[in-house]
Prior knowledge:
This protein has 868 residues and is of the alpha+beta class.
Amino acid sequence: xxxxxxxxxxxxxxxxxxxxxxxxxxxxxxxxxxxxxxxxxxxxxxxxxxxxxxxxxxxxxxxxxxxxxxxxxxxxxxxxxxxxxxxxxxxxxxxxxxxxxxxxxxxxxxxxxxxxxxxxxxxxxxxxxxxxxxxxxxxxxxxxxxxxxxxxxxxxxxxxxxxxxxxxxxxxxxxxxxxxxxxxxxxxxxxxxxxxxxxxxxxxxxxxxxxxxxxxxxxxxxxxxxxxxxxxxxxxxxxxxxxxxxxxxxxxxxxxxxxxxxxxxxxxxxxxxxxxxxxxxxxxxxxxxxxxxxxxxxxxxxxxxxxxxxxxxxxxxxxxxxxxxxxxxxxxxxxxxxxxxxxxxxxxxxxxxxxxxxxxxxxxxxxxxxxxxxxxxxxxxxxxxxxxxxxxxxxxxxxxxxxxxxxxxxxxxxxxxxxxxxxxxxxxxxxxxxxxxxxxxxxxxxxxxxxxxxxxxxxxxxxxxxxxxxxxxxxxxxxxxxxxxxxxxxxxxxxxxxxxxxxxxxxxxxxxxxxxxxxxxxxxxxxxxxxxxxxxxxxxxxxxxxxxxxxxxxxxxxxxxxxxxxxxxxxxxxxxxxxxxxxxxxxxxxxxxxxxxxxxxxxxxxxxxxxxxxxxxxxxxxxxxxxxxxxxxxxxxxxxxxxxxxxxxxxxxxxxxxxxxxxxxxxxxxxxxxxxxxxxxxxxxxxxxxxxxxxxxxxxxxxxxxxxxxxxxxxxxxxxxxxxxxxxxxxxxxxxxxxxxxxxxxxxxxxxxxxxxxxxxxxxxxxxxxxxxxxxxxxxxxxxxxxxxxxxxxxxxxxxxxxxxxxxxxxxxxxxxxxxxxxxxxxxxxxxxxxxxxxxxxxxxxxxxxxxxxxxxxxxxxxxxxxx
Length: 868
């Protein structure tokens, strides 16, 4: 027998699981089971997938133990049958064959038996017998907490967390959600005569296990199954509260028993003999908690009015652990504006008299109406008293915090309850599963997992005890602004880890996500969007796609001379999306950083399960799809790194000189944009001194496709497209070598076609305007205006050289605190050769040479590097 870690806290913990009926059983939503699913479905019938017939919840509470009390509660759920049901449930959830899982499940469930260190079915401790520190006020009633588990969870999967709250002096009701989000549950129908049906097995539901009729409208929901499961959970939480409320108030109409039929001490759960008050406070200060989809459930309940047949929950605080927000309608959720106290027509367990079928729209419409009423939050309406918003603590895993879009939405959501934005805490090195028992199971647990869990428990208890600030002072914390360039990709390798291209593909993945982020920010919300060609580099073209669920997919395709068809690329993306969806539909699939590669720290899916092998096989099939493209339709990126010393950087000026960029380019230096070009033929000089740094600097040139840019310009300047016989008509609108458009070169060129130089200097000759004038008697006059880049004191040495290189004239011009000088020289007829048109004489070319010296005669040299 193996025990989970001992429970820290003042009190021993008791565990009792209660069940209560729903009369009559009713379906929630319109989703139905397929006959091929692993759930109990009569052959040939299409049954509701979500049938509300019995609600189960496990109570964790301060226990009144005696010498006869035995410690140890089964962690694996085995209410009626052998552990086979748990095995089937985990197999359905993980998507693995049972033969892989059975050694682990049977080892921990049957042979050594994993136990929760708590006492089953023992009496509830009377509050007056509770331990108190000196100066503490006596406890009249135990506070109540209701907890909702996440996908793949159960009423015992968070036993450590629930036990820690119970050991601190609380009664925790962990709901067993029987909506197909848990690994396994076995509900029964309670007949009017008191008999019960045989339990039916419900294992984790996948999309392949369910269907909707053609007449059902589910298109408005991004996660239709999750939306209906969320509606189901609303009913379970309210019924849990209502039935427990009746139990502790000794309501004679309550129908409740333990799940295994064993007796429990009803007297200890009743009223105080001396005061007539219940021992658990259900009427005020209730706490709602949940993890993952359970956190989503908490936020949904806090932002909606209860269905008409239920009492409102008197929630005072909420603990939300790593919430998953995507099933909730956006924008929102937001707090309910006002309490609807008129809804008091509560019947037994909130079920009798209700509609036989409950639509998910009831929950969704309530969320939307809450959003519409948000403007009146906090203001009274009529005679209804306004309920203050519950205080909220959100504890996030690091993996969910670096999920950029999701975390940004979480921050906006939490502002509705905590405007000061101090209630989101992220635990470094934690994972999504860190809040459950899984990381601290015997044999497999680690010190890190224990440390993270203890932090989660300590923060939660201190929040409920209203001493969170004190706890944070004792916990090592840091205020962190998270800035993420793109989302961390899941890198699906179709090459070996030793492949020399590993660095390149790692770079491609992250760069592509940056581009997708920029386009999404520029265009607003993108959904199910083919982004086309993102850019090209070396021998690959990179394409992007955003799925309806905001999954970003990048394909890096090998270059070829064939023309790519968008429809082929889109088909490849669709196939990748389906393969990805099948593999990642399990939220607990292990995503870790590569530990054996220093160059690749992006998350990737670890090889292991048969499902992974099928996924990998499908990726390989897609990667062999012949999708190619025309070079001229591509975007290209050129990157260069260069070093500059501190003495060079100390020069007053530093310029990057681009002698020729072909054609539409955006240039960035060390991440800052410095230049945009639209003309192949002109040079550009950019002052970059403020952006340079001593050491290594990075220059990036991104070239857009000339075809694309030209056609966009043509739409504006010439809406009526011209019919040219020799090439694309958009060429008329582009300052680029026209032979690129098809009558000469085959390929459309792109890139830097002349040198790029970094120049550092004090001052330089910026411009010379030289002119020659010949009189009628063939005398010649030469003049030159010399312009400097800045005011300067020194001299300019001017030389005029013949075509043979001989100096025919020279002069030294003095410059004093000036930005220029003027040179003039007269030549008598016959002193120099004149230039004649072809056929009339020679064409001799004279050259002018200018040299700049400082005041002491030192040559003003120009330091240049990065010549490419």
